[in-house]
Amino acid sequence: MQEPVLFRTHRRRSVLWLALIALAVAVLVAVRFQPQPVEERLVRLHAQDVFGARSAVLAEPLPVQALLLDYRDDRLLLLKAQAALQVFPEHTRLLMELFGEEPEFQDALKAHGEYLIPPVIHFYQNPVRSIELMNRVAGTRQTLTPEQRAWYAVNFANKEGQDFTGQFVVGPDGNIEWIWTDRITEGVTQFFTSGIRTLESRYRTDQPIRASDVGWAAVDAIVIGSAVKFLKAGRAAATTARASTVTARSAAYSTRLARAGRMASVMVGHAKWPAVAALAYVAVRHPLVLNDLFAGAAKVLGVPPWMVQVPGWFLILLPFLLLLRWMTRVCLWFVPAGAPGYCNKLWGQTPRHLKR
Question: Cα angle vertex 303, ends 298, 307, to 5°?
Fold first, then answer.
């Protein structure tokens, strides 16, 4: 008569211990692992899957990782970009973040590799008198920005090829020097004259000139086929919904989750998968994605991240521990009668065939 009561007491104690363990682990995860925007986490995980866990690409800034992911379909472009990062790491990162999405820059980088970086950086760092003069002749009173000057160098490299990139040398001290001749000066003037027309047409049609502005304006929130667009779409959504109502933040977060699902479909190599199933699969492989999702939900509700992370992890861990407990009890039925019984006490029940 007393055995069922004892059995229920042991079961309650074991469930209580499992609940305490799940709660402790949930608190530890919430404190130990800092959440990231889900877009950034997925891009990092995708780069790790594509390039390998020990690849030097993982040490690059996140925008550069996203660009290299987009370059992987063009093997030559990817190799040239990695070579430029090895030879001129800081300058290449700067130019890739400015112009990495532009087809003209990609064509120039694929054609010239690391030899493209010195001339573009030289134009970026130093005013070029011929450009400024032609800019005034064209009627534009504004001084060209470094990005605009660098963009001229990119287009010049596409048109003149090595005749242009070969004019620049890098000294032992790292300074970039431009070697001039009369013939080259004439070619440069001819190029700048045609380039001013492009610049003026952009001003006339109110098109942005800065490559960063162009990149942000070209964000595609519907089809995620590019890691860069996916990353920027998430940042734009987060900035837009920062001061909005809970309803607006919830709608923005739902859109971000839909994008994350499409990105997850690309990651697992099965774009035909439903977005939710692909995102769930990635979350199982990389549980930290769940931590980021909980933190994102907390932002929607306007509460600290731990207030969603701890209950979220608890609700995931407790059923998992209960399932593990049940599987252990089932396995113990096959344990020989003379085996030690400390595992049985841990999970709250002694197999029937081991009782005396």
Answer: 70
